Amino acid sequence: MSIAAAIPSVGKARPLKVPPVTDRTLRNGLRVIAVKRSSVPRAELRLRIPAGLIYDTGDGARARLLPDTMLAGTRDRSSVEIARELQRLGASLAASADDDDLIVHAGVLAQNLKPLLALVAETLTQPAFAADEVTVARDRIAQEIIIRRSQPSAIASDALDARVYGRHRYGRGLPTPEAVRRIGAGPLRTYHAQHIAPRGSSLVIVGDVSPEKAADLAEEMLVPWRVKTTAASPAKPPAPPTGLPVLIVDRPGAVQTNIRMAGRWKKRGAPDFYALAMAHNVFGGYFSSRLVKNIREDKGYTYSPGSAIDHRRLCSTFIVAADVGTDVTGPSLLEIRYELGRMTLLPVSQEELDAGRRYLAGVTMLSTQTQSGLASYIDSITAAGLGIDYLRDFRANLEKVTPDDVLRVAAEYLSPRNLLTVMVGDVSAIKRSVEALEPVEVTTAL
Amino acid sequence: MFVAVYYDVGFRSEPKGRTGFAHLFEHLMFQGSATLEKGMHDSLVTGNGGILNGSTRNDFTNYFDMMPSNALEIALFLEADRMRAVRLTSENLQNQVDVVKEEILVNVKNQPYGGFPWLYLPMALFTTFPNAHDAYGDFADLDAATLEDAADFFDRYYPPSNAVLAIAGEVDPDDAAAIIERHFGSIEERPAPPPVDASEPVPSAERRVVHPDPNAPQPAVAIAYRVPDPIAEFDDYCAAVLLSSILIDGEASRLYQRLVKTGRLASHVSGDVGLVAGTFEVRGPSMLHLAAWYPGTPDPDRILAAIDEEVSRVADGVDAEELDRFRSSYIADYLGSVDALSQRGMLIAAFEQQRANAELINEIPSALARVQADDVARMARAWLQPHSRAVLDVHPGANA
Q: N or C: which end of chain B has fewer CB within 10 A?
């Protein structure tokens, strides 16, 4: 029996069941998107408010501190009372900020959705910013920033952002620990009043609740949230520069080098986005991609190399990442450039393309199978200005992509000359080998 | 649809001189079989819309595939195929030794707080080789691994009699049973290895280990206590789980309030009952562990003194209302976690393998509901004594 004969065939893929969506904009301007998913007796919520670090016209400390301090007590309840109420409801409530948004993540036993929404409304409209809570939060966040700055992957990510976005606020990174420790309750109150507003924000609810009822509850509980923002939208960043030397951030004694490359990309759903998605996928988007096969499974230079797309509100960026042994830094760069060049000059095979798109369609389906996964997915496409039809049509749109399409877009977007490169590693050990391939610029700190 | 195969072999099965071998061998199981070339297993899963991985833990090594349900037979074929005969070549062995070393560099040696506390804390709490060796592996041991070791390991630990297969998702059980029979039924029968005896006495004196971390910018401390046996003393183990919640789980917890909020001794605390495998997916000795990160110079004693005070308060008695809140929160989180098919599949596999009780997945909430406030206080008195704990004292910086 031949091997091919032994491998079972795969049945026809079942069509993706796209759930009915209730999509409503409340009188106060908040958009509410609710979907039923009854797999467990819970509900998941994602509230996204455009109040991230790029809206902070100062050093970013207020935007970074706001999510933690906003949930740490209201006019009527201390932080520990909130924590106890959440336990009674079988709920979790946390908030974070990225460059674009402040995002509130919550989960709750479905029967307690209403009291949870009441609590969320309370934190949005009546945060206390008590002095002791602000102090605890800023010490914790300052400590997190200190620890983050010691992580080589974070150093690489910050250096890359600075190189890609330059003086735009996307390139600024996190505030310093000192800036965080300087912020008192006053500036937080002001920032909250300016930016925490329903218009432009979205709330996603996925769970064992009828979508109409979930939206009704959101309406009932959140309509008292009435604020008009005065904040201006930040300008788009310029396209990433090209033609710069490889930037090496020195990390003396490092046993690995964190290699990162980046270039511009298209937003989700834009023309050529699906062809680009396939180019990224075949190049480095999953375990069976060319990059992983080459520098991990053939050469053993690295544990988990790959490419990724960083979708932000104002632009999208293509990123290649590989953490490689110090002694194989030059050879790794050579292989990464070889694989990029191959994508740029030669067509992908039909087989590779078909496997890649089945993977991408399959994992998209798998990632939306839990309440939490579906809530996060809907939240992210909502942030990108897309509706549920993006999910529904995703597979069909991938299927239209041809090898010629991939070659055409790869020639531009994956060309090594259109990507910039940053490394974090031991300059004394890696500079010579990198320099053999590319001009190098060295920095000792960010 | 999710398929998992759990082999009853983990860190605790490794022989002396071969630390890290169970994990290295997990990598080799992805390097091809007698019938499939290297890379084909991966591409048959991913190219049909799925994801795959494996992990090595204290008491098991698992392999799993999450795929669209029309691909069930492919997943089962692939798992049967490598169970029947793995492909072992010196080239693949050398390649994966290199990859595993890079994995250890990225996760541990080039990373601030790498391996803290999950890798180093058991090494401080336990003394016997199965529990206390470096589970990721010494580089010299990894380099010393031979093809013969790998062939022996496969022969000994990877027979069908030493494995549990679990499926979760949109699958008809009768159809699945027929497919399983078709692909696994003909695999050669071999005896399962004898179980590992990892039992060891509870420490009689505090064990303190200074852990220098050249990458870390700030000190940290981790503390571990032994707990009742997760299987033989399951009810008490559940009480210890809720004890850990009351002490460490979230902002309402005693130690968050004491160490972070009022005492300002630490910026972060976290902790749980269990090993890196999880809370309930462990067979042998387990632990209650917590970690705290704090600024300044290393000085764990103030933190330890505060912990001892809080533990003795809990040991004096816990309020039923407080216990109920932590329990509700734990159960709600548990329900959230089993929403994922992967988590359902993994729990039923581990529970069947270690306890012959896959149904435990549905019984965890009721087991927790049986815990009384007195049980929690009793656990604190019996197990959380300073003289029976281990302390891992992280000294940061290049001069640590």
A: C
Shared domain for B37 and B142, answered yes or no, is yes
Do residues A171 and A259 share a domain?
no
Residue B197 located in a structural domain? no
Tens-place pLDDT, residues B80-103: 999 999 999 999 999 999 999 999
Name the pLDDT band for A2 (thresholds 50, 70, 90). low
Asked whether residue A257 falls in the same domain as residue A404, the answer is: yes
What local confidence, expressed as pLDDT, does residue A9 receive? 86
Residues in A touching B268 (Cβ below 8 Å): 140, 143-144
Does residue A208 lie within any of the structural domains?
yes
In a domain, B285, yes or no: yes
Residue B95: inside a domain: yes
CATH assignment at residue A391: 3.30.830.10
CA–CA gap between residue B282 and residue B246 (Å, rounded): 22
Provide the mean pLDDT of chain A: 95
Collect all residues of chain B within an 8 Å Cβ-Cβ radius of residue A304.
103, 106
**Nearest-CB residue to A359 (from B46, B340, B398):** B46
Same domain, A173 and A83: yes
Q: Would residue B46 count as lying in a domain? A: yes
Residues A207 and A252 reside in one and the same domain: no
Q: B100 lies in which domain range?
A: 2-184
Q: Which domain holds residue A151?
A: 21-222
Residues A212 and A303 in one domain: no
Which of A303, A372, A398, A430 is best to mutate for the B interface (most B CBs within 10 A)?
A: A303
Residue A230 included in any domain: no
B119 and B249 co-located in one domain: no
Domain CATH code at residue B348: 3.30.830.10
Same domain membership, residue B277 and residue B147: no
Which run of H or of E encompasses A74?
Answer: none
Q: Choose the mutation target among B26, B46, B170, B337 for the interface with A, i.e. most A CBs under 10 Å.
A: B46
pLDDT tens-digit readout, B300-359:
999 999 999 999 999 999 999 999 999 999 999 999 999 999 999 999 999 999 999 999
Look up the pTM and report it. Answer: 0.95
